[in-house]
Design a protein that fits this description.
With 509 residues, this protein is α/β, with parallel strands linked by helices. The chain has two domains: 39-361, 3-Layer(aba) Sandwich (Alkaline Phosphatase, subunit A), CATH 3.40.720; 378-502, no CATH class. It has helices at residues 3-18, 63-70, 85-94, 121-127, 141-146, 216-226, 245-274, 302-305, 332-339, 402-407, 413-418, 424-427, 459-476, 483-487, 498-502, and strands at 39-45, 73-79, 131-137, 175-179, 202-208, 281-287, 309-312, 321-328, 364-368, 378-382, 386-391, 437-441. α6 packs across α7.
Length: 509
Amino acid sequence: MPQKAYSLVFISIIILFCSFPSLSSCNSKVPTKTQQKPNILLLFLDDLDPDFGCYGNPYTVTPNIDKLATEGTLFTRAYASAPVCSPSHSSILTGCYPSTIGAQHHRSSYAKDLPKGYTILTELLSNAGYFTVNFKSNGDRMFNKIYGATAKTDLNFNRGKPENNLESGKEVFEHLQIIDPFNTTTYFKKGEWDKKKEGQPFFAYANIETGKKHGFIPGRKWAKEQGIAVDSSKLNIPPYYKDTDEVRSTLAASLDAVSHTDVEVGKFLSALKTSGYADNTMVILLSDHGATLPRHKQCLWKTGLHIPMLIRWPGKVIAGVKNVELASIIDIAPTILAAAKLPIPKTMEGINLLGNMPSERKHIFATRDGMNNFFDASRTIITKKYHYIHHFFPELGYRENNYAKNALTFKSMLPLYKKGKLNALQEMYYKPTKPSVELYDLEKDPQEIENLANNANYQNVVAQLQTELFQWQKTSGDIILDARTILGVKEVPVGTQVDNILNKKETKF
């Protein structure tokens, strides 16, 4: 064979050999590893009601969240496990009610280790090979409370060193990605993100505080600049508020902050898509409890517990679905584990929201205990039709802690209450005591205006729900401090500190 022919055959063999990268080193690019498990992006919004367009709010402008809803499932009956930050945050990463794991007292120094057999979602995912990462914006603390993400996890149990507790989240995630909220290329690239191995699935967590009370004024300013500010004169004022200028302006600012939050959410969704991760990522969006408003945050009414919840998972979750079954924040961890094809610990009390169990659920629960170390204890059970609230210490009002008095009180309503110029519904939040029991018919009275607890026609419902609530407390190991016996008083004094009681004795109520 001529030399030229030999050369052509040799070249052909080389080309053929190099066309199979797995058999040849001719291709200098390292083969991409097939990723079997989905990525998870959890967008956790602090202090927000479901005030988005997709939930029917006509005042807010939320195109990014609304689009997310059309691409996935919107849960219409999702609830927080507690109406305040740290207990609710503890539920999302443990899959348990706060009272089950001893994390029910917000902002007291009472921080126990997780009970034996209980674990944190990040540990389970990390052990399964996931890249776990929390996001934190650059700049000062107030800057990252308004723009981007705060890295807040706010787990209400002991996580080691003192600096690991309270709001810090660096110890439960392997990585902390510092982002520039005005440059979304920093979200899923560079920095700590470069430590993610090729083909390694990730669990990314972004706590967004843009809609909280510290975001009201910036949100209002931003909305005016964009020409989308809410006209306070056109708001429908809820019947439990007095129609004052302050109430109108505050509600308008709170809604503008919601629209502002949508922009920050949109940045994460855009960055996810640009980075090429969107198609294999389950996105979960929800909040921890109600808005930073009177009767919302810190209260077990629907306004304090009803939260937005959206799940998008391309190819796995049918787009544009509205799920009307009862859902809870305790379901997030089990749902993520199920999506990752990992076993769900028996200690988790939540369920997989994408399975068949939600349709079988008859009720969910929520708890309210110490607030900023001011003692209290209430429990609630919610069914599709009824909402029952049991206050173990009715001698304590709804707003007896400093945070409620300073941040959750309309200054224009308080003097009107003192002058007797509020109606019975409006003054309820400001009174120094609470009713022992509350019952609301959610079908007939979605705004929870009429307490049916003493209505003769509903006594069977009261008795049934009370029995189910007390049985849940017994089986879950819920501990209510018998504060009256411990303190030796007939009524617990206002301002009693949780820690003072815990240091004396702990007993079941």
